[in-house]
Amino acid sequence: MGIEARPPGRPRDADADTAILDAALELLIERGAAAASIEQVARRAGVTRATVYRRFPDKTQLLIAAVESTYGNPPPTPEIRDLEHLLTGWAAALADPRQRRLLRRLYGAFEDYPEIAAAYEKQLGSPRSDARTAVFEQARDNGELPPNTDPQVLLDILTGAGWQHLITRPDTSTPDDVEQYLRAVLHQAGFTPETRRDRAPRPIKE
Amino acid sequence: MGIEARPPGRPRDADADTAILDAALELLIERGAAAASIEQVARRAGVTRATVYRRFPDKTQLLIAAVESTYGNPPPTPEIRDLEHLLTGWAAALADPRQRRLLRRLYGAFEDYPEIAAAYEKQLGSPRSDARTAVFEQARDNGELPPNTDPQVLLDILTGAGWQHLITRPDTSTPDDVEQYLRAVLHQAGFTPETRRDRAPRPIKE
Q1: What percent of chain B has pLDDT over 70?
Q2: B147 — contact with chain A (CB < 8 Å)?
Q3: Domain HTH tetR-type, which positions (chains A, B) (predicted)?
Q4: B74-83 pLDDT, tens per residue?
Q5: Least packed by Cβ within 10 Å: which of A120, B98, B100, B103?
Q6: What is the least distance, in Å, from the CA of A178 to any CA of chain B?
Q7: DSSP E strands: which ranges in B58-123?
Q8: Contacts with B165 from chain A: Cβ below 8 Å
Q9: Domain residue extents for chain A
């Protein structure tokens, strides 16, 4: 990108912040929460350990901040129009190889670093879950999902199917592959796309 | 258990085998595949590292053998009578705290030790998956599941719901708790228990 003029403010600090968070996220993805260390992060970010510790009291807090930084802090409020929009968005996220590795690392971190998973869930997962269950309720009300649909159960089903995809399908899966997979899951859960239900019968030639 | 007479055969070797595999499994559950080491296993088993290396060329092979040993090698062929039997058996397994930790560790090991997950899947997962999909087919054929049920998709749904349960519900979940959870998932997937469908209407008093 070439050399850019530093913006005013506290430029050196902001540079170090970015370098530290980027390095922490890379190391989390490459090695996992247990194997990543403050020392490795400092080295990769080109700063001293003291510089890292001035910002983060320990590795857990650093990794939480790194995860938050990748999803935005605060993350944008998810806007999901309908079930089709939910499907394509979810499929795109699950087809991103880097995202896949990060999600597997987050699952793997659960046992020893539950605070990281909790932070992810609180910051990103919870508002997104609300947006998703709202879409399920809407789809149930307009007949795309069975009347006895439980939005929370359906969220567990799709989220779980995502975890399953991450360890049983290749990281080269395309958004179309993942969408087909998620669509089959939704179909088994009673999803009938509106287009299919509303399709007018073909005019009969007279 | 008191001091028992050694059985004939190669008792010392067998003792060492058991001690090594038990120690490896414990360490896998406690620390995860990345943090567990041959040295720790040897120390906990009360043998030298050389004793471990005579049996297993590396940590991966040792952990694979440890996982195999806990499920039996070869594992017993699963016999699942019907969907109710599948539900209660699955719920019992998922409500075992030690099993829960092991499963989370297996998921967590996927990124750096895919061979362990592959061995688990090949040895235990695959025959069990076959037994489960056979039950889904049977349930579909007798009307407990919708006619358009895809047994493979349903297996992904239930397996995924299991992964989701492992990181969102407490390890104190009882078999009843887990069964209720899995039952809600199956219900959303169109499961209608036979007892409900076949219940005769109550006789009307005349």
Answers
A1: 88
A2: no
A3: 14-74
A4: 777 778 999 9
A5: B98
A6: 13
A7: none
A8: 156, 160
A9: 11-71, 83-195
